[in-house]
């Protein structure tokens, strides 16, 4: 038998005070900043997230907990049933996790858009305690400093990336501040057959609405015609050239953020995930989008 320590995520999940007796957590796939488990207890199913603060990524679990509770109150996310340092227990949602192929069709985007709008317009009214700001351009600068501290082999790439980040920030201009999810990967949507759920609030915080819109489309390869529809439907007005350009700048920023996030993970993460391949994929997509922006 392998000895279990406090650092063993499965052991931490099993040891929570919430359980009525011994439990057997079953590992679930999907988490790349935390470990996820399904636990059965009292005849019920529970979803357990195990993860400590990750300051280098700006992940602070107190803020994630506050956003998760507010998201449930706003009708977006499952209920938080229990919390201990480094662990949160949610009501289990039985459903299908979306894929990029499921996100892209217009009918699914029409279902997703109200969740984003509710997150931006209603979630903040349920928040309690301190919350964070998610500003991608600060994140780029901080990531670069952390990569320098870690003597990352990515250092020669940083000056050009930061110059492009500065250009994107200038192009974006003034923003409308909303409380955003800021991590709209397909795996953060669950379809239970009746409705959609928006989960995982690790990076939630005040940001530009354009980040979530660009993040959703860049992560899931949404077609340009559907991006145009999404912008018009979100703002409830015709899309102008000025809005298109600001949106495209933030979409590029979303791709750059995912690229540099993965560069950081290459140096700091202990999870079993091919971060190098993830970096190369998003770096290529960012450079392509940035070249297109220069011609926009």
UniProtKB/TrEMBL annotation:
GO terms for biological process: phosphatidylethanolamine biosynthetic process. GO terms for cellular component: cytoplasm. The keyword Transmembrane helix does not apply. CDD domains: ChoK-like. The keyword Ligase does not apply. It holds the Pfam family Choline_kinase. Keywords: Kinase, Transferase. GO terms for molecular function: ethanolamine kinase activity. It comes from the Bacteria. InterPro entries: Kinase-like_dom_sf. PANTHER family: CHOLINE/ETHANOALAMINE KINASE, ETHANOLAMINE KINASE. This is Choline kinase.
């Amino acid at each position: 038998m392998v000895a279990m320590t406090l650092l063993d995520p499965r052991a931490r999940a099993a040891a929570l005070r919430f359980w009525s007796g011994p439990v057997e957590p079953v590992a679930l796939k999907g988490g790349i900043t935390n470990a996820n488990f399904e636990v059965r207890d009292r005849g019920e199913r529970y979803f357990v997230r195990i993860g400590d603060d990750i300051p280098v990524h700006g992940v602070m679990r107190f803020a994630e907990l506050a956003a998760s509770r507010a998201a449930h109150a706003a009708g977006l996310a499952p209920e938080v049933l229990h919390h201990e340092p480094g662990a949160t227990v949610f009501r289990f949602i039985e459903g299908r996790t979306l894929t990029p192929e499921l996100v892209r069709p217009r009918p699914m985007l029409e279902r997703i858009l109200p969740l984003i709008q509710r997150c931006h317009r209603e979630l903040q009214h349920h928040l309690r305690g301190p919350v964070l700001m998610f500003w991608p351009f600060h994140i780029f600068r901080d990531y670069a400093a952390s990569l320098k501290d870690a003597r990352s082999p990515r250092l020669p790439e940083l000056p050009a990336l930061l110059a492009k980040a500065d250009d994107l920030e200038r192009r974006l201009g003034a923003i409308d501040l909303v409380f955003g999810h800021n991590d709209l990967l397909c795996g953060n949507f669950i379809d239970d057959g009746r409705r959609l759920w928006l989960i995982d609030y690790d990076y939630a915080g005040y940001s530009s609405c354009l980040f979530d819109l660009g993040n959703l489309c860049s992560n899931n390869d949404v077609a340009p015609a559907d991006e145009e529809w999404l912008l018009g439907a979100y703002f409830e007005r015709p899309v102008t050239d000025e809005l298109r350009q600001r949106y495209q700048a933030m979409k590029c920023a979303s791709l750059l953020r995912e690229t540099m996030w993965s560069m950081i993970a290459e140096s700091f993460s202990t999870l079993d995930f091919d971060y190098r391949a993830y970096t190369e994929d998003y770096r290529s997509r960012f450079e392509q989008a940035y070249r297109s922006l220069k011609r926009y």
